[in-house]
Amino acid sequence: MTAVQHRPTTRRCVSCSTAGQATQLPPSVIFLAVAVALLLVAFAGGYGYHRDELYFLVAGSHLAWAYPDQGVVTPAIAHAMDLLAPGSLTVLRIPPAVMSGLTVLVTGLTARELGASRRGQLIAASCIAVAAVTLFVGHLLSTTTLDLLAWATFTWLIARIIRTGEQRPWLAAGALAGVALMNKPLIAFLIAGVAVGVVAAGPRTLLRSRWPWAGLMLALAIWSPWLIWQAEHGWPQLEVSSSIASGSSGSSQPRWALIPFQFLLVSPVLAPVWIAGLLGLLRAPRLRPYRLFSVAWLFLLVVFLATGGKPYYLAGMFPVLLAPGAIETDAWLTRGPRRRETLLWGMVALSGAVSILLALPVLPARDAAIANSANSDVGETIGWPELARGVARAYRQAPPHAVIFTANYGEAGAIDRYGPALGLPHAYSGHNGFAYWGPPTTAPGPVVTVGLHAGHGLRQFTRCHFMGRIENAPGIDNDERHEPIYLCGGVVSSWQLAWPKLRHLN
Questions:
Q1: What does the radius of gyration of the chain's CA atoms come to, in whole angstroms?
Q2: Distance of alpha carbon 352 from alpha carbon 258, whole angstroms
Q3: Closest CA to 89 of 140, 129, 38
Q4: Does residue 11 belong to any structural domain of this protein?
Q5: CA angle centred on 210, ends 204 and 215, rounded to 5°
Q6: In a designed cystine with 90, which of 45, 95, 220, 307 is the match (CB 3.0 to 4.6 A)?
Q7: What is the number of structural domains in the chain?
Q8: Does residue 3 lie in a domain region?
Q9: Looking at the DSSP assignment, which residues form a beta bridge with residue 468?
Q10: By the 8 A CB rule, do 68 and 243 touch?
């Protein structure tokens, strides 16, 4: 069917080349979305807090419009959940579980907008439901969880605007982008990618309406408090981004790994579905109105390769690639024998089983090394209570009123979470947000350091005695295992003079 050649208005579709009226969303997609959310809630309490979750909880008690490494949204969610149920890991992780379920639903809706059949919509939703990245970010409260949902919803709204010609959803897209920008600025790259896609591949009529510009202005207005905070504090986000690009972040990967990782983030055996979607957008006449999404993906791939972006930065594009991929896969199933469908659903089931094993705490902690070897975030949820107990042992041997100083925000967050029950004061750190919450205001005195090494931060302290190393009962090799604890006499000069040398952003 060829594209309609009439000049679109705000009330008429820009292109009706994808089967006109969209089919009804099948109940199976809704059921699948709910099932994913319930599965994630069921396993939410496993193992323990992730280092980032511990950081968000502390950041939530220092609410601000922005932080050096993020916006206010995720810390605010963490703070709200902790007020609702103090100390409950399961309640803390309900929001990411719901967000992941909604991502599954939106992926099905995107396939619907592109003209997928009911089976095609289920294929798209199933692929994202069993994707490793969906379960990884759905199990933990992180800024990436909201990003994945925001990117999926933003591209769905654009697809809907293209199909229906209705322009008012631009305001919803702008509001969504503004909230996502207040979470972290990554979605700005998607907005740029969509703009490049529209200019390069059309439909360029989208830019002739006032509504996209109104949506953009709304996004900037919502984002403005973040921008003001960053400007007032010297744009620390740029320093964080530079550190990530240089590989200093704990989740950074070599630049060459960005492309291979794309084949793993959904599933190696389901990668052909999103690849078929990418190629379909580029070549299939019926998907021509949505070609901008393939151009956006290629643009973002080049940008993140050039800037040293993390591999998961592209994960938000999978829903809009799986949607056309499901259309192509549905056609492939129709053309062939029934065993093709058996093969497809077998690969979906296999992918789901592997993703659950790697992303969720289904194994005892003593056996988590299997999952940790493929997903290092698993190890970062184990051992924090032992860390606090190790620090408490050193603190009890320190003179009165000792200060606790840690190398990173995970260690400081763990002490703030588990320390009060052990008689510990709150911790200080020069890492990211903790650097902005300031040094101790007390006179220089004894210091218990955690994770500092000679030749690095430890040189700012005097008369340091080794007190032990951090261990965890299951013996999981994570970033904290074997890190040293020292008892020091004090800082070399004063906290105010030492603080700039202890501060680090990544």
A1: 25
A2: 23
A3: 140
A4: no
A5: 95
A6: 45
A7: 2
A8: no
A9: 485
A10: no
